């Protein structure tokens, strides 16, 4: 994977942006430690930092078309690179899929995006028309942040775009505190910085910017067989293995990562699983983490002859890890499991340049057990309650839960029957929850120059998932039933029938001391937005419970984020 950045302005030559572009590129260097480049067209200054997974010798970027009309800076992996090259005229100068994307645009224009299967974010400048196009993949695996304040600027991470003393987007921060699973998908917590929504094309020219959706999650129930799911998943995993460098896998011992490991076969040898102190005592204490992953991961590791690395998260490093986490995730850390992602990424980067991950299976194949619960699917606010909402000062927002519940209902659809409740909850999960998860996965792996590949985001596999009927997906009251059925004989039966359990988190992490420090000396931004007296009143809980711990975690992260980026109070 890579880092991309650029500045488009029509009032002066692109070369005048050289210094600012260099600063942006420096802030993205962790995403591409293997090389960097820049290109200056009349009004477009483009930059690239490269993580060389394929064709290290000739795949440098930005890349220009042979006729000089188009210049591309690209971050991603195409799963159907070979198929596209067979359709396109060539000749080919590199083995890089960036050249494939460029050739596809030259041949089909913007309509080529419907043919691209993979995970990507890119910007293409058309010198002939003085027009730029930004494109993001269907589910938002690869990030694209931008600002448009008289100058259009973009980058893989929002932190590359922020000024020295940025202003906060209070609405985005309230969304993060109240509805973290759905936050940071459209607006960043930095005022004026936005994210290109998944499945969208952005056009920029002298008239300004326009956004158009080229794909949306639209379930249409059909007759989907287990063999069709099995075939497309196997194909997606094979396609995701295209690499000149070794790949590993984040292995939880759950259904999804186990299936990927089984289909990857000998191409993947190193597997990484997270381990916490005292985790054998945690069964039943979490609504999402319902069992201990380690025995299942070890079982599959032995069966597939994997080199399994138990990656231990040390509680002694918690305070520093929280600070680093908040600095790394410029959308603000939403889940405690992000500590696990960062710990795994750090360890894996010492052995491999890329890892396969099982993300997106639960969200697209009805894999969450709470979909079977009428109360949990009664509306968006039920999910807020499940994950814990931080109390917000009334003068900032008198009813954030009600306001956000109404806004998300408009995105999701009706909640007036059991079937509609499941469908609408899933719609919201795919539109907001999943892009947030994918953002977290990308930003924590790429902070160590590690590429996370997501086979379940394959276009063809998504097309299959959208045709799965709800009653089939949740057959016999079992979440993700069709995918489980498809994997008979592929993974051990004990893993195939195992109930969904989220990526582990430290359920004994001592947040109270950190939270007490925030209450004693809050950053002005935290003091202005969070109802700190309400938070302080709960500090004496000996067993605070999952929801309250989550509230502490997010408030602590907000404090560190505001401090690290020198945020101004609203």
Task: Walk me through what this model shows.
Strands 2-3-1-9-8-10 form a six-stranded antiparallel β-sheet, covered by helices on one side. A six-stranded antiparallel β-sheet has the order 4-5-6-7-11-12, with helices on one face. The chain has a five-stranded parallel β-sheet with strand order 15-14-13-16-17. Among the domains are: 2-144 and 196-213, Glutamine Phosphoribosylpyrophosphate, subunit 1, domain 1 (4-Layer Sandwich); 239-355 and 458-496, Rossmann fold; 511-564, no CATH class. The longest helix has 29 residues, at 418-446. It has helices at 18-27, 81-87, 97-108, 170-178, 226-240, 255-264, 294-304, 318-328, 337-348, 361-364, 380-387, 400-412, 418-446, 459-465, 470-473, 481-486, 493-496, 511-520, 524-529, 532-536, 546-564, and strands at residues 2-8, 35-40, 44-50, 63-64, 70-78, 118-126, 131-136, 145-148, 152-155, 193-195, 200-205, 208-213, 247-250, 268-276, 307-313, 354-356, 451-453. It has 570 residues and is of the alpha+beta class. The mean pLDDT is 94.
């Amino acid at each position: 994977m890579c880092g991309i950045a650029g500045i488009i302005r029509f009032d002066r030559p692109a070369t005048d942006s050289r210094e600012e572009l260099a600063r942006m590129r420096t802030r993205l260097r962790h995403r591409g430690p293997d090389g960097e480049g820049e290109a200056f067209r009349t009004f477009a200054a483009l930059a690239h930092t490269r993580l060389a997974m394929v064709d290290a010798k000739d795949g440098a970027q930005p890349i220009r078309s042979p006729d000089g009309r188009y210049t591309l800076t690209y971050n991603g992996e195409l799963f159907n690179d070979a198929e596209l090259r067979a359709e396109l005229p060539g000749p080919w100068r590199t083995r890089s899929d960036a050249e494939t994307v460029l050739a596809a645009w030259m041949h089909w224009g913007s309509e080529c995006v419907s043919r691209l299967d993979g995970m990507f974010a890119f910007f293409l400048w058309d010198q002939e028309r003085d027009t730029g196009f930004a494109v993001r993949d269907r589910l938002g695996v690869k990030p694209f942040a931008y600002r448009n304040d008289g100058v259009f600027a973009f980058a893989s991470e929002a932190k590359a775009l922020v000024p020295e003393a940025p202003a906060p987007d209070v609405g985005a921060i309230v969304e993060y505190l109240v509805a973290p699973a759905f936050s940071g998908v459209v607006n960043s917590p930095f005022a004026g910085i936005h994210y290109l929504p998944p499945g969208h094309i952005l056009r920029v020219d002298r008239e300004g910017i326009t956004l158009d959706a080229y794909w949306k999650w639209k379930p249409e129930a059909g007759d989907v067989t287990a063999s069709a799911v099995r075939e497309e998943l196997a194909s997606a995993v094979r396609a995701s293995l295209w690499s000149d460098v070794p790949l590993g896998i984040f292995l939880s011992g759950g259904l999804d990562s186990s299936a990927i490991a089984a289909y990857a076969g000998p191409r993947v040898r190193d597997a990484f699983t997270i381990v916490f102190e005292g985790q054998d005592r945690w069964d039943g204490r979490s609504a999402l983490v319902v069992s201990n992953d380690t025995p299942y991961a070890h079982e599959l590791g032995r069966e597939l002859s994997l080199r399994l690395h138990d990656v231990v998260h040390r509680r002694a490093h918690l305070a520093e890890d929280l600070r680093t986490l908040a600095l790394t995730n410029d959308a603000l850390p939403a889940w405690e499991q992000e500590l696990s992602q960062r710990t795994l990424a750090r360890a894996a980067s010492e052995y491999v340049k890329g890892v396969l991950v099982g993300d997106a299976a639960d969200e697209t194949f009805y894999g969450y057990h709470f979909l079977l619960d009428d109360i949990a699917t009664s509306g968006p606010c039920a999910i807020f309650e499940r994950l814990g909402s931080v109390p917000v000062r009334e003068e900032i927002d008198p009813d954030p839960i009600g306001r956000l519940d109404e806004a998300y209902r408009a995105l999701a659809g009706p909640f007036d029957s059991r079937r509609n409740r499941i469908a609408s909850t899933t719609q919201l999960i795919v539109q907001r929850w999943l892009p947030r998860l994918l953002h977290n996965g990308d930003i924590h792996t790429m902070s160590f120059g590690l590429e996370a590949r997501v086979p379940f985001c394959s276009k063809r596999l998504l097309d299959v998932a959208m045709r799965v009927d709800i009653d089939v997906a949740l057959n016999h009251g079992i979440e993700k039933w069709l995918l489980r059925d498809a994997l008979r004989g592929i993974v051990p039966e004990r893993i195939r029938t195992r109930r969904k359990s989220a990526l582990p988190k430290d359920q004994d992490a001592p947040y109270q001391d950190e939270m007490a420090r925030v209450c004693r000396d809050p950053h002005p931004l935290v003091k202005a937005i969070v109802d700190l007296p309400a938070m302080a009143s709960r500090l004496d809980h000996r067993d605070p419970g999952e929801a309250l711990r989550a509230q502490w975690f997010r408030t602590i992260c907000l404090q560190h984020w505001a401090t690290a980026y020198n945020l101004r109070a609203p």
